[in-house]
Amino acid sequence: MNRKQRRAMAKEQRKKGNDDLAEKVMLFDKLPDECLMCEAPFDKKNKEMVSKWNVTVRESQGRVHLYCPDCWDKAHKMVAAVVESMEETAKVMEERKKNAKDNE
To answer: Same domain for 58 and 94?
Structure first.
């Protein structure tokens, strides 16, 4: 690869990087001013809030959701409870299948 090709490739990468940055800035503009669940206000200029609150981005759908720490923790606990319940149900179903085979 010669010097001209390397420069052209570097230029193309910089251009692509600027497009990616512009896309991310556009998504930042869509950041809500409150928690999606409890509607607690969010101050974009407060460093503590910015570092503790959680953002989910669905680029394909162009959606940005914002969650306060309390709602984020509650959601994780609910998901963990559902997963645990599903695992217990799967164990019970396996035991029933095993018992059904043993009784045949």
So the answer is: yes
Task: Indicate if 38 and 82 belong to the same structural domain.
Answer: yes
Looking at residue 52, the DSSP 8-state letter turns out to be H
In angstroms, the CA 104 to CA 74 distance is 45
Distance between CA atoms of 95 and 91, rounded to whole angstroms?
6
How many domains does the chain fold into? Answer: 2
The answer to whether the predicted template modeling score (pTM) of the entire model surpasses 0.70 is no
Residues 18 and 65 in one domain: no
Torsions phi, psi for 41 (to 5 deg): -70, 145
Centre a 10 Å sphere on the Cβ of residue 44 and count the other Cβ atoms it contains: 11
**What span, in angstroms and rounded, lies between the C-alpha atoms of 64 and 91?**
37
pLDDT digits over 38-87, tens only? 999 999 889 999 899 999 988 788 789 999 999 999 999 999 999 999 99
